[in-house]
Amino acid sequence: MRGDDVTTTVEIATGFLAGLADRDWSVPAGPLEWSCRDTGVHVADDLFGYAAQVAVGPPDSYPPFEIVVGDAATVDGLLLVIRTGGAMLATSVAAASPDARGWHPFGVSDPAGFAAMGVVEVLVHTHDIARGLGTSWTPPADACAAALARLWPDTDPGPDPAATLLHVTGRAALDGTPAPARWRWYGEVPG
């Protein structure tokens, strides 16, 4: 995946979420224990963190920072932080050598892997927030298929890549198979 994929995904997701800004974001985000607001902060933090992994490439951990969105920030302000994190990741991926590497608990990865991780975070957590806010959102099929190809290379995306992505990330049953209770992606650089 490329930086442009991150940009497009973030634009689609934050555009959708902006239409839900007047709802109560203090409720749980779908199946998560986090509130919708805290889930949004988590997405922003991951986007900034992945950008750092691509740009700096620390060998065995994340840099010791965490994104904080002040309590007085509106939903629009939170979405601005998410868009900023997306821009940072997209820029880092676009500028990085394909040989760049960064640490992740699920395997040392390359810029394309971190782009895919960022896309998955945005897609599945936008879905979680939508559920928490009493509506539905289907992630775009092309972004889901690309993320599945990079992070779950042995998974057939099937005719509905969004349903498959929601399944492999523990959010939905698929063709009668319950969602896994535990899941992970495979960020290692393909061999």
UniProtKB/TrEMBL annotation:
UniProt key word Kinase: no
Keyword tags: Isomerase
A single MF term (Gene Ontology): isomerase activity
Residues in Mycothiol-dependent maleylpyruvate isomerase metal-binding domain copies: 14-130
InterPro entries: DinB/YfiT-like, MDMPI_metal-binding
Signal peptide segment: none
The protein's name: Maleylpyruvate isomerase N-terminal domain-containing protein
Organism per entry: Pseudonocardia nematodicida
